[in-house]
Records
---
Amino acid sequence: MSSHDHHDHDHHHHHDHDGGPRLSRRELIQQSGLIGAALLVSGSAVMSPDRAWAMETTALKPDTMATLIQLARDIYPHDHVADKFYAVAVKGHDTKAGTDAAHKDLIEQGIADLDKRAGAGGYRGLGWEEERVAILRQIEATPFFQTVRGGLVVSLYNQKEVWPLFGYEGESFSKGGYIKRGFDDIQWL
Amino acid sequence: MGAPYALDDSGVVVIIGSGAGGGTLGNELAQKGIDVVVLEAGKRHEFQDFINDEWDAFSQLSWLDARTTSGGWRVAKDFPGLPAWIVKAVGGSTIHWAGASLRFQPHEFKALTTYGQVAGANLLDWPVTSEELAPYYDKAEFKMGVTRTNEIAGLPGNNNYKVLKAGADKLGYKNCHTGRMAINSKERDGRQACQQTGFCFQGCKWGAKWSTLYSEIPKGEKTGKLEVRAESHVLKIEHDASGKVTGVVYADKDGKTQRQKARVVAVAGNSIESPRILLNSASSMFPNGLANSSGQVGRNYMRHMTGSVYAVFDKPVRMHRGTTMAGIISDESRHDPSRGFVGGYEMETLSLGLPFMAAFLNPGGWGRSFTTGLDNYEKMAGMWLVGEDMPQEQNGVTLHKEKKDKYGMPIPNVAFTDHANDIAMRNHAYKQGMAVYQAVGAIRTFPTPPYPSTHNLGTNRMSDKARDGVVNKWGQTHDIKNLFVSDGSQFTTGAAENPTLTIVALAIRQADYIAKAMGAKEI
């Protein structure tokens, strides 16, 4: 953890604009999305299989973004968390790649390396999580992997829309705390 | 004369830092009519400004100035730029502390006598005894409104506490309750009662938890004798040809260098910044830094033996609801070398929200072993383990040889490596912590590594003898009569207990001493 991670995250969700296939973070999250089905790439956008959401890339190749989303899920797999949240979590890499050539290289080359290691069908072509994870174990010490993983710690788990999926209730001051809302309601002990 | 004070007013006591030590000392001196200027590096946020959000509050409150780390501790690998999680704001770390207010046990003031020589450790007895400090503990507990003292009721137990208590009962532990907490169980001293909101580590938005920010400091300011100058980052302390300190150089909120004259200077910037300032104040007369004839400034850094145990059950716990540190088991705090280590440890409930749990459960961890733990966040209970660690001379704070902050001041490096005793104690504590939860049906337990240090101690330690300590029993430096240390850096050893109550007790006692010495014109 560092404040740096956090600041990166702060920038993730303010760079989208209205119109076109690009969705703002909020719009993206308001729409439904399938969990764990193959992502589609069309033009400069990554799309969910049911076309319920799409994310346009500006600096990274859309294929790279699609693989990043899969990579994010493989690093922090939560079967009850939809792809759209992983997409939001890695969107910042596209934003940063737009102004930081070194970052763009880090991500593009890192993803290209994953595809190369995976063989003919590329990283996303590997059907089993354990096949993909075996590749990740080979590269887990690289700056590429650590950059993606380190960023996700904040950009995935600090999405307020994700918290209810884990039973975390967030802010409570405005509701008067839990003194009358179950701070001691455990029954099973 | 009264606040605000002029920069060239050489009659003031200048206190560096406004936390448990500095904020308390400032109020105590002001109550006695002594003119005080508190220089605080951070901003002033009032408690209404605090944020019920872990990362946002972290950004708002934490000390994030550049630091480096070295040594064998895992923090140096996982959080190399963040050795300590402490607050940079008026009120210091009393803003985010949990509120646990425990007295040291009598034998803990006599670590060397009780434990004997421990190879590789730099143990000493405190020059203060439990009996000498007892009346000041009384005053500190009354001031802070500590539950289970002064006929103040304990806090009600939340879900996380109830799990801990049930496990403690099953294991046969006898000393488990909702703690001695500086959190109001009833309205007291103009502050309201705890609303079981959680987010104690993000600053209490009700003001129910004692903090110098809204208790000591406003009371001191009301006397007209206390001025708190926020965003004043101290760079060095100056002295005259006789070796007495004369004032403090600091960067103000605009980055402009200012010089505040002083009759007395008290350093209370926590155990990383306090030695950093003394070391950075080296002069031709004091080439190794101020008050450092012993060579002990910056050494013997302690951070408590810590670790956490989280456990997953088959039904919801919702540990994030209510007081963060909601209960304690003290049975393991005794000194009992048959366990394979000297000293003892406390087991205290702790909860993290999902964002911090993701960052701290197993830093660097990934994959299903990690995520299936988080999947059960709602069914988790958690405790923090905190025990006495061994002072070691090579653990400490030094000035970085190349890197400087924006004011040109060398940044601090924090070196730490566990002593074998620390490791043996942590392993025992993990085992007992996991047993507490397994006794009530835990499906899975997580022995979680130490977080960046919240308890930072020992880097200007107290000793009777000038040759092996920095300050005497009053926190007065052996080398310079009108220079004091007022924070946890003066601790000779760390004891098992959370340090704040002892810092406050020492500050109240030190205020009496300073007032008397000023009255007698000794300083």
Note: Residues 17-181 of chain A form one domain.
---
Amino acid sequence: MKIIGDILTTTRDELPDSQGASITYLIRKANIPHGRISKILGTLVSQGLLEQTNSDGAFKYKISTTGREFLQAYNTFNKFADSFGLTI
Amino acid sequence: MTEFFFESILNLVGFAVGIVIGIFAAIGFRNTGSPTLFRLTLAFICIGIGFLIMWAGLALDMYVYHSSEQIGWIQTLGIAVQTLGYFFIAFSHTIKSFFPRSNYLRSVGMVPLFLISFMSIENIIRSISFILLIYGAIETTMSYFESRRKTALFVAGGLGCLALGEFIGWYYFVFPHSILNIASISIKIAGLVLLFIPITRVPLTKIKFDEKF
């Protein structure tokens, strides 16, 4: 759950260019292996939380409107869970 | 009569706080799919229902049976449901060493529950509640030292107050007709208010809730 939050936050706040963030950039930011992040990105795209674009033969990722709403809810409820000493 | 009044307030405040936090956690679960929020939902719904059962028991005594003696099994049921809620809070802190590993000890540990009266079962359940609440309070305090989030202190204080209330409430059985019961109830109400504070700090207006809620 935290990884998803980190990926969505990166694609919202720390985009290297307007096309979106590449897998390599996200791997460096989220610090997780390629195989795992590919699966997570696939799930996030299929759920409509990320938008995938093809730029110069490489996939790039940007947060969608649904993703922004999810991230807002995630941050709010993360604070709530944090009050109980828990992480969501 | 005074004790009935105070206990009714405690139980109704407990019901309201439990259900409101439970619904809030449920909304969080529907929006994020987090298992932690699902456990918190179960925990606070159980706590709220437990308080409601205890209030129903008191109301039955007062208005239906017109008896000053509380109906044992309803109180025990209410406390048991609350304890289940406290268990889910402790379980969320990845409780690992609470239950004995040996199957023999586990099976023997259940035997007394079938041999003793409702009053004794109530005392046993109260003591389990006390342990779970202390565990939750300690874990939440530890998390405060990591995150420095002030709301964690309110939750730790709330769980600690509920634990102290349980402890003093248990002492009331040793010294009945003393002020201990009122003290226990007041401390528990303070604990519930402290537990509710984190909800008031959440910027609810900024959340787009699930349409089904």
Note: Chain A has a mean pLDDT of 84.
---
Amino acid sequence: MSTLEPLHLSRRDFVSDQTIRWCPGCGDYAIISQVQKVLPDLGIPKENIVFISGIGCSSRFPYYMDTYGIHSIHGRAPTLATGLKIANPELSVWVITGDGDALSIGGNHIIHTCRRNVDLNIILFNNRIYGLTKGQYSPTSPQGIRTKSSPMGSLERPLNPISLALASEATFIARTVDIITKHMGDTFLKAARHKGISFVEVFQNCVIFNNGAWQPYSDRQLRSDNDIFLENGKPMIFGQNDDKGILWGKSGLEVVELGDQYSEDDLVVHDTSSVTQAWMLSRLTYPMPIGIILDVQCPSYEQAAWAQVQEAKMQKGEGTLAKLFHAADTWQIQPHDGDRPASQMTVHSRLPSNLDEAYMDDLLNDLNESELEERLGDMDIAALKPHAPILVADSARVDHAVQLMQKHNIGCLLVTSADGHLSGILTENDVTNRILGHDVDTHASTVAEYMTVDPVALGLDTPVIESLHLISTYGFRHLPVVDEHGLPLGILSVRDIIHFLATVL
Amino acid sequence: MTVFEKLHKQPLRELDLTHYCLVSTHDLVKDAVQKMQETNSNCAFVTQDGKLMGIFTDRDVLQKVANKTGVWEQAITTVMTPNPQVARSDYSIATALKIMNDHHVRNLPVVSHSGEIEGNFTHHAFIRFLADYFPTEIYNRPSDASRTAAHRHGA
């Protein structure tokens, strides 16, 4: 197979078989969903993608990605990533870190990784708290916050990650919000396509220990008045009615009301290549700048390093490892009789797991269930009474499948393997996009060649809310329902789900 | 404001209505399908001088184009649905949903007072509106529902 062959990866290819251990409602879920959703768009084979994390809740990320990954040392993910990228420049290397991992213990490494402009994508999950260790203040926690480690209020002023990245000479700097999912996905794509260091701060909600920390900037009612969504080349306008803007004042960026005194022409036009503007934006908190703050080009570290290797080889020829080892003073230590083997140490320890459970139960009991959760949380897919599916064998001819859809006037067939299990789904979208006009001989091709293999399927006991998640996050229009053995039971369309919602909402 | 009040008050123009493509009444069926493929749209608006003349969806592709001979080279006007049901951009979401339901359509062109096309209201736009309201419940879910921990243990 030629390497230029399209990959046809889907987000499912990036979901691993590991059990996820994040708290229900954690913003980390939205972030990983978007990463898994946009990775196929990069056209990079799975085996060329690596996620490296440090320590923290967010750092469990690599387990949940079906790519290469390293759960590394606290604060040191950028160092492993730098080494990996230099050794294997063809890899797409991502660093997953949090406000503690990146800005406390790893502060030094993050600075120098940015400064070197290694072609890495750093995603900083900023929840303004230490979540994994159960709620101590972090370097981004606001001053005065009362936490387990600051019972009378934190004395420390918070660090601004965007300003730190700027001071560290990062070449791509952006900010996004966990639940503004499309913006987040787009931002990740742009970060991945940037050659050189990409630094993305994500406002992430820790639902257990710091719930609502970013509410003014994430809440759909509040955010249009509190956030400014930056677009390169566009004037800086914000507000629910696009009635406010930002202009250059005497001492920096100033917020003004649009109207009689000021018009769009007076406003600053966002320019991602301007470092000066990026500095001003990084200090702005009203409105909160969301989007790409800086995007400039400069040679990446690994490219420059390899250029030096080539130059050295041209001048001195190929080196050998043995020669290098013996280049300086070397000596040999002679073993002598009576040497004792290294003592074997046994570690005795007990994990305080009972304590953890009682503690988490206490915390979770305090969480308020929202309206939708109350109404839909206990309803499952069975309540939607899914239609009986129209089935087609994966060995059937494409033209027969199309006839079947036409006959029943439906947009979706469930495809079964010889043993009757659900093996794929064929939709009208596949007919429109992959078959028509593509020189496909529908008499000679089989359904198996054009279906979506192993589609996401629901059980009758799956919560209804899961179907909303799949539709809103991935844009699915049809969801198959299967029994516990994977045999198809029914099909749900977006229309069915909306009908159902209309009856309960 | 509760989500129910919002459904009745929020105008369509505030939703994501970008999922459509434009073709002209002079285009052939194959041009329209190609445009839909390029823009990854499920729906094409057929226009003449900026006015909406008809609508052509992937269901039409399935029913009227697939497995049929000769249709590929015909004018789009022969297979489109002429004078489609539309909504005005100041209609509420609830009104638009009702129109969709009554007319059994999945794409509802949204037009301004003067008839200019402003977008396409789809079921997905509605689901995204809901998701935006309940982000913690809807967005913050595991990517694979079967892979969540049954018991809490460890740190």
Note: Confidence is low (pLDDT under 50) at residues 340-369 of chain A.
---
Amino acid sequence: MNTLHNFSKGIIKENPVLVLVLGTCPTLATSTSVINALGMGAAATLVLICSNIVISALRKVIPDKVRIPCYIVLIAGLVTSVQMLVKAYTPALNDALGIYLPLIVVNCIILGRAEMFASKNKVIDSAADGFGMGIGFTLALFLMASIREVFGNGTFCGIEIPVLNDNHVSILTMAPGGFFVFGLLIACVNKFGKHKPKSNNSGCESCPQAELCSKKGGSTLVKGANTDD
Amino acid sequence: MTKLVIILLSAVFVNNYVLSRFLGICPFLGVSKKLDSATGMSIAVIFVMLMSTAVTYPIQKYLLEPNDLGYLQTIVFILVIAALVQLVEIVLKKYAPSLHKSLGVYLPLITTNCAVLGVTILNIDEGYTFIEAMVNALGSGLGFFLAMVMFSGVRSAIEGNDVPENFRGLPITLIAAAITSLSFLGFGGVVENLFS
């Protein structure tokens, strides 16, 4: 039951992209087409599950003071393996994702979950959490990519859509469209979210470096995001 | 020489790391609220980008490639950047305390800034020479600086406005970023035509 909860919370309630606002870089960059988004989501999910399992299994071995460098090395190793798999089996996806594939290393979702969850919980729970978060990430990417591809390019997974194909708004597939669609989606989450996400639920808090960041007043953005001041 | 200028200008304007490549979005959204923190962060980023390119480029060319270890690129680069950032912090603390006071706080945050890892990997992928790679790193850092400073101005303009409730905070910031990014879209094709 508890394991199931750990799995399901990542999908909607604590969706890493739309509610926790983590991993914005790959979300904006790879959501130009549905195929790319799904590929990115699958690669990140695989890394997330493996890193949560490994870090959870080693949580008593890794010294507290050097844990972040240890996590980064472990995650980098996993990302390299995934990168080799993608290169070998789906070279087209490798070309499409390009630089963003090795950059999964610095994706805050993975480091964030390692720090927030895997370092404190059992292996099975951590695997469930990683899987749930990965699915949540993939779903958010899929949603954003669908909007951008359908309206920006008039296609869905490469299949042409009759009317939209002649009237597409190509700016949506370019950089500004990414920011715009993401902003609208988060506004929708604020509007329709069952419970208003509290300030302690926001991106900076789940970032491993929140403490450092808040010292300089950096995280005021997300802190003020959902209050009514 | 012309090629270097083209690389520099296109890294600053056309392929701006934040606004058209989507790298380094976290600090872009997180630290851009005040002008002084935006400037401090960007200067630290320029510094680390230059340093890490200067270190990772020779490692890739003279250590990894001759020994067929190219697949270790990601691991080695992230380790080098993490170690370098720590080292720079220690050196600054000891020899330039005033500089450390203004930049030091931003340094630990940079390790997980994807723009820094991105610039080192892209320099290798694009097949630049060492000089070109350094120029590209400088241009990318300056582009980051430009985007941060411009955007902190945009944000202070939003500050006092009455924004619809659901758009308060992050959503309106993202939409402002979309408009800022739109202005950079106009640079596309300009740089190449300047020198042709």
Note: The mean pLDDT of chain A is 80.
